[in-house]
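Continued from yesterday's entry.
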Amino acid sequence: MKTPPLPNLADPIARRWLMFVVVSAILLAAVVGFAGAVAERRATVDLSRQAQASATLHAAVLRSELAKHRSLPFILAQDPDVAEVLRSGDPQGLAAMNRKLETLSGGTSAAVIYVLNARGMTIAASNWREPTSFVGSDYSFRPYFKEAKADGAAELFALGTVSRRPGLFMSRRVEGPQGLLGVVVVKVEFEALEAEWSAAEPAFAADPRGVILVTSVPAWRFSTLNPLPRPEQQRLRAEHRFGDAPFEVLKASPLPVAGHAPTLTSISPPDQGENRYMAASADLGAVGWTVYTLTPVGAALRTAISGARAIALLAGLATCAVAAALLRWRGQATVRAARQEAARLELEARVQERTAELRQTNQRLTVEIEERRRVEAHVHVMQDELVQSNKLATLGQIAAGVAHEINQPVAAIRAYADNAAAFLDRSDDKTAKANLGLISGLTERIGLITDELRAFARKSSAPAAPVALREAVDGALLLVGPRLRQQGVRVIRDEADEAARVMAERFRLEQVLVNLLQNALEALDGHADPEIRVQVSVKRSQVRILVADNGPGVAPEAAKTLFTPFATTKPRGLGLGLVISRDIVAEFGGELSLEAGPGGARFLMSLPKARS
């Protein structure tokens, strides 16, 4: 058989390579452009997030600075020394007050603290030693004096009439028995804060009118974000608040509204060669100011776009190189395709086989997981039942004592009722009512005991929540009270920190306390001068409850297996009380342990403190 001549492949190959070059150039351009757009969008989102975080941080710092100083005029307004100086005007008292204000100013970093009398005249000031002392100056024209005099408190940002330095004036009215005595004023300056801001991106705080008050760019101070009406400008100048400020509008557009997402902003003229920023804002709260930060975006966007385009170009060139190699090997495509097809079929068969195995394995795992979940659910149910059984067993131990505790008021009720009937027969209504009142008190006592028993016996699985520790301790002592009195055990409580609130569930916490108290009572059985101490202490975020007795203590061998299930030293004990108690405390996020100490057993329970 004669072999047919090979066709001329030069033209088709040339056309194929020409098409490959054209398509590769178009795809490279599209990929590079798309990568740049995606990088710009992602960088913008990152800058927006960064700018908002920066604005929030700046606002928090400024809010903290204001809060630190806002309490100072309030405290001074309540100071009896200030009221006495305003009433008497004693020269020695004024000298002492000057020194006191000087010390306070240095300790709190306030720019100046001064006291005005009812006429607005300064009688004492922290800068009394300086040439610019406020002593003797009349500030009755200042709005912060007028507003504090009328409303009790005022805040005003303004230039100082003597120092010509901007700051926030916080004032408080000082009351006397006959009414107004004067006004206490604290001036806060923000130079240190502005210096910290200037180390990062531009930032400033504006009042509700849009006047820039605190800024890292001094040239922007008293500029406005929006044009101020001329009457408003004249009023501000008449109040000597901002000196001769021209109230020029800061050419930054647009700026975000407080609470809205950051926006790209342009500043004209450019600041330090940069005119594009990511502007973010944060509301300062009650003072009414808004904090703005301007994060430069030019360099960041250029870097992100250039890097993405370079990576996309390199990836595209690598892809084109691979495609060119594949195109070059196209001549051997028939044999390679046949081999690849056979390999593909074989691979598919293996994949199908492996997939079937994996599917079977997955089904088995699903069954095992479901079985494990059922077992875990059953374990949780059994654990809850075990806790409830322990609670009921404990309740059974204290039932006899509680029955005796209830029997006494019941007998008394019977006697008082018989007496009341006799007094009614004698028409002695007053004495009969007194007996009925005693019966009411006794029934209330019985109700308190039975309510505590019913609540203690109730099955509870509520999540941990803030619980008043004193209520839990009182409930536990109420339940074991009869046995305490029967054995003559003295209970010593350190109630200083019992007002603390812990994260727990009250009745399960009572169950733990009752278990610990029961153990202590059993240890003290037959002991001379028995004593149980319940001590509560608060350390940072933890509340520690110590239950200790002066009994024989826990033997070292028993201490090793104290929290091991079914390990017990009691003749009729199951060895589960402490194990269940520790599990309950662990559910609350705490820890129960035996603490080494002199004499007796000391059990320490640590619980997380509830946030107020």
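--- second protein ---
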Amino acid sequence: MTTSSVTSVNPVSPVSPVAPVDLGLPWSHLAEWDTQHINSQLIPFAEGRRRLVLALRDELAGDLIILTDPQDRATRLWLEARIRSAGHPRVRFAVADREEVQAFYVRMERDMRALDAQGSDLDLDPSGASSEDSDALQLSLADISTDDSPVVRFVNSTLYDALKARASDIHLECALRGLVVKYRLDGVLQNVVRQDGQDYAARVISRIKVLANLDITERRLPQDGRIKLRMAGRNVDVRVSIMPNLYGEDAVLRILDRYQLAADDRLSLTHLSFNEVQLQFIRRMAQLPYGLFLVTGPTGSGKTTTLYGVLSEVNSGEDKIITIEDPVEYQLSDVLQIPVNEAKGLTFARGLRSILRHDPDRIMVGEMRDAETAQIAVQAALTGHQVYATVHANNVFDVIGRLATMGVDPYNLVAALNGVLAQRLVRKICPECAEPEIVSEERRQASSLPPEAEGWRFMKGLGCVNCRGTGYKGRRAIAQTMALDIGLKSLIAERASPAVLRQAAEERGLNTLRDAALQCVADGLTTLEEANRVTAVEE
């Protein structure tokens, strides 16, 4: 671990230039620091308190890491791994008394208790639920630090950190050496921490099972469950999937933060990063009085979010809007949202039949995954309802074949279907560490770039604190649209091949998902590697 000296003192970096001679590190007086400067992403609260180290944010001179025992080799190695995984280019080190570090954490815990108390007085739950939810696991730094069990502290701090990082999934993987924790950030898995020991890994998985009300004695079969969390005044649902493996069990926790979209003001279609042509297409499909509008793409491509944006724009209060979802990911005001419960017999097909008897005007089907649901949705669109639905398919043409394999009559399909939107999510380059990139001729040829790419200004992200060392921050949607006119409907009814359909659509100005991804590269919004990761190179 390299060390650096401090040449000057400023109010943002209260570090004394007088350092212990035998260590060569400056001495820090933590009483001069405010607890708001803590960098809990680099050094988590619970782990830092146990090891008696902490990280303080300093945007001018680089983050400052405080040590109490610089000769502790295990702590040094752990810190080096944290810094390397976070991609910190500017980090300094200093020494402080053990008592000062302990007092700082006590002061921070007190401040967090005050913030949690203020948050509990605010009703941030738009559903009107009470802020005290006895079934939910309360997450706060104060509660995490005071728990005596190391396994409980580890699980709670992992959940807390993942929510702060806005991870969509947490992967807990039992390997030969122990437990590996990964977050899915902006659609890509990132390694977070490794804990040695298979026994410790098994105890962590058992704790997850307890929280999800699963059978802790069953270790040979998959299990599914739910965890309710409450943090900073809002409820968060976590969907749990347990899967046996060679070394024990893996757990994947899907985080469903129902209020994140509302808080970020992204529920409007305007905030979903579609270009103007795509926005006009979506709005035209959404405003039609009846028919079927399909949104397609793989899992995690933003299909449901797009349909939520559609519902938020058409929800004028004049129409009865009903959704059936598995699960209900975000709450919408003045919309009847029905969660699928297959254990109780409420499937998509059964729920959709009941919805049609509930006098709806607009219906959203979370996923058309079976023949019965698809056929009922098509019949609903034919009988004067506007139906929005998602389907798992790779592009706008594969949707037709997917519905055909479900047994949907092609004549009914073309009569009901208004249009199809295929979409993906690409990561955006972090604006804090973006810089120009030189792309070799070999990479250009392998990516089948068009001739006009000679004039593109390629960009990349170096990796910084803002993007957790990845070089990317946030995502945007890319889309392929197809509106069905009489010519395309005739081809579908005649069961034309995908090649014939594509040729006819291209004659009508169809753009591919690859075209949309490369346009983001040309605009400097994403990298060529990200475009190649999300879309296939077209020969």
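The chain is about 35% helix and 25% strand. Residues 1-22, 113-132, 261-266 have pLDDT under 50 and may be disordered. Will compare against the first tomorrow.
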